[in-house]
Structures are given as C-alpha cells and as structure tokens.
Give the backbone structure.
Amino acid sequence: MSLMKHTTGIHHITALVGNPQENVDFYSGVLGLRLVKKTVNFDDPGTYHLYFGNEEGAPGTIMTFFPWSNAQKGRIGSGQVGVTSFVIPGGSIGFWKERLEKFEVNYNERKRFGENLLEFDDPHGLHLELVEREEGERNTWNFGGVDSPNAIKGFAGATLLSGQPEATNNVLEDLLGFKRVSEEGDFIRFKSSGSIGNTVDVKKTSLPSGSLGSGTVHHIAWRANDFDDHESWKELIEDKGYNPTPVIDRQYFNAVYFREEGGILFEIATDPPGFAKDEDSEEMGKDLLLPPWLEDKRTQIENILEPAQARVLEGDK
C-alpha cells in the first residue's frame, strides 16, 4: 500500500470494573456521561456490557465496561492502558473540582504538556484524568448536575504502559499513523488527526506487568472510517507481521483485535453503524438491548443480571 494509513484516533476504551450500579452512578451520575447502550458481553452473556459517551455515543467519546460485582481486583501495569483521559471544555476545571469534591472523589490537580488536568480514580480503581482543551465538539447532553457547557466532550487520550515502549512507539507511528509531537519527563506524546481522542502518551520506562481484573483497562480501540477502511486495516496489520482476529460483528461497529509487542491489546473498530442502529436515539441506554442471536434467552439473561440504570444522584436533586 503506497499511501500511509492513519487512524483519526481512539474509538473506544473498554475496562473491567465491579458492581454495575456503582459503575453507572459514577460515569453517568457523577461524570455526566450518557449511558448510550445497555447490552451484554456477547462472549459472556451473563455479564453486562455498558457503553457511555456523548449524546450520540460518537466514536472518540465511548467508554465501555464489563462490570462484575464479585470481580477480582486487577493490577495496573505494563501491557495496559494506564490512564484514560477525558477532555473537558476550557475554563471548566473549577466546575469539575467542585463536582468531584461534592461527591467526595479525591483528586490531584496537575499540568502536563502545558494542559491543566485533574487526576483521580473511579470507585473500582481505574485511573482517570479530566484535561482542559479547546478542541473537540461540545457535548449537547445534560444530566443531573452536569450541563452541556461543562460536559465531558469525549476522550482527550490515553497513557499507554508498555512492556517494550520503543516497539509500542513504532506501532503508533508506523502502523497507526500517529505523529510524535512532544516529550516531557518520562512520557512521549503522539497525536492523530482527529479533534477528539487524539493524543496518546507512552511511558518511556516499563513497569512490572499488569494483571487483568476490576479497575483495569481490557483494550483500546482505534477508529476505522468505514467497513472498506476496516478491511484494509486488517490487511495492513497482517502485512506488518501481526496476527489479527477475523472481523467480528459487535452490532454497533465491526472489530479486529491484535496484541502489539508491548503487550497491549489493540482493536480497530469501524465508526458505523453506531448506537442508534437498534433503538431510537432518544431512548438509547434505557432498556437492555440484546443481539438477535440472544433474544430467545432474554428472560434467563435478565434473571442473572443485577439491576443497573442511569439515575440522578441525591447530591443533584
């Protein structure tokens, strides 16, 4: 392929967490994201797969979770996304400090690569950041105490913890088409062409290996423009000597997975068809949506799953 391919940035990030209602209360109730889809893990239908994002659930805004109440605690380390960063509008950091204090979320205020940010953990130990940035479309969603002018726009980016940082840097540049733009302390920053989910920081030194479990990221997905683009990504990944999975239909996007040398599980996901595919966009996230092949097991599945729904928290009533 003569032309260098590049992804516009992060499509979604998927993590493992604990109790489902605690998960919804934090991401929807505290952080104000929209629960855009309530479905199940297609590979383990006794578990939810919850998707949060902006009002449309646009690529670049989607944080997804597999929640289990009795999940074993994981360990954040090499071979994982270490920090998931969300972008907030310029000038909104004061609003977010007050909000985190109101819900007793401990945070640190920092500056990195010239940007103001708040770092904190979710209830299950996942490392998060809110980064002030002008780029990215405003999120039109209002929920609880979070109004659109202060709402999280989507991803700012992610910090990758690699077992082989140089190899991971090469994958970002030579395969995914990110540009190396800056270096600060122990981090190298890469940037893509998108306006959201467009920065990736790689830690230059490697940590002990992480272990999967509650409070850890399972994989990070990069954007493919459409189904044809997705097929050519799969070919390119094979050409570069990786061993990608077949294309898997995830209902709301098609997926291909591969593991890079640093141990991190990467996915390429299509922007279409999106989350309004099987329910009206106004109703997204309210009901349990199942793929056609699981519909006949609905009663059985609903009996296993714990109740979980987006609700306005006491502090916002």
